[in-house]
Design a protein that fits this description.
By secondary structure, the protein is of the alpha/beta class. Helices cover about 40% and strands about 15% of the residues. The mean pLDDT is about 90. The chain binds zinc ion.
Length: about 300
């Protein structure tokens, strides 16, 4: 395929349409700025074509963050609507992201820094290269990055490495919710219009790892993602073994677990979890509404709540 080059999210021309499925309706993209993402159909394409510059910056940053967490997000019409109504991250957060991204993969102190890669625009929510350069200069002004005058290259200062240590240690209140669920094709709408919508309407980010090799086993990536989450939502429809593992692991960490299951599957629920107050949903809409209320009652509204509730 490889014929399209303008990214549906950021509009940049370093993108590849890798594949289409569902009779050409679903597009699978790889963008040098945004990363990998999926556009599920005509409605989402229309929503994407109407974005302002500031909105596409938010969406590109959101897609990139999901990639860094190991998931390939679906950029549905609903997701577009929610993400573009969020506020831009504040300057301090954008500088922190830039600093952490700059040393990603570095093996030793004093390695040369490169900021040319397009994904730096995404991670810093920058509209264009000038804005990114301004942020890099701000790190220099703060003494976290220095210019090596002999070679005109940049590297992290000792203060910069101290800051990086602090950022990596910091346990920020998380906006993330890990979703444990069946990967059955029939569950697709349940995730987008039910689980993810309910989580995002409550003001959090619903994240799932959707690679088939993760079925029924829990690996390092899933463990890392659960550790970073504020809570997890475990949907037992289809009774996938991995969901029981992931819910158990989260409980062991002391994280709140919200239990959901399609009403018709409730009778097969494993005995051990029947004690929990499970949301027995009938369809995605019912699930989204009840899940939002349960999350707000359990944890309070998340950081994106005020804007997510706007039309
Ligand atoms: Zn892009």
């Amino acid at each position: 395929m490889n014929d399209e080059t303008r990214c549906r999210v950021c509009g940049g021309n370093q993108a590849t349409l890798c594949d289409t499925t569902d009779h050409g309706n679903q597009e699978h993209w790889l963008c040098e700025r945004c990363g990998k993402f999926m556009v599920p159909g005509l409605e989402s394409k229309t929503a994407l074509s109407r974005l302002t510059d500031e909105q596409l910056v938010k969406l590109s940053g959101w897609v990139f963050e999901r990639n860094r967490e190991g998931s390939v997000p679906e950029v549905s019409k609903e997701v577009v609507g929610r993400v573009v109504n969020r506020p831009l991250p504040p300057l301090s957060e954008r500088l922190d992201r830039l600093l952490l991204e700059a040393v990603r993969g570095h093996k030793r102190f004093g390695q040369q820094l490169h900021f040319k890669a397009r994904h730096f625009l995404a991670t810093t929510y920058s509209l264009e290269v000038n804005e990114l350069n301004w942020l890099v200069d701000a790190l220099v002004d703060q003494g976290l990055v220095k210019v090596v005058t002999t070679s005109n290259t940049k590297e992290i200062t000792p203060d910069g490495y101290r800051k990086i240590d602090e950022l990596r240690r910091r346990t920020k209140p998380s906006s993330k919710a890990f979703v444990a669920m069946s990967f059955d094709k029939g569950m697709h709408d349940v995730f987008i219009k039910g689980l993810q919508k309910g989580i995002e309407d409550a003001g959090y980010d619903g994240v799932r790892v959707d690679k088939t090799e993760h079925i029924d086993r829990i690996d390092d990536q899933i463990i890392a993602l659960i550790r970073e989450s504020a809570f997890i939502v475990a949907d037992f429809t289809g009774h996938r073994g991995g969901v029981y593992f992931e819910a158990g692991f989260a409980l062991g960490l002391g994280l709140p677990v919200i239990w959901t299951c399609r009403k018709s599957d409730m009778k097969d629920l494993h005995f051990d979890i029947r004690q929990y107050n499970t949301i027995d949903w009938t369809g995605p809409k019912d699930l989204a509404e009840r899940l939002q209320h349960r999350i707000e009652a359990t944890l309070g509204k998340g950081p994106y709540a005020s804007l997510a509730s706007e039309p």
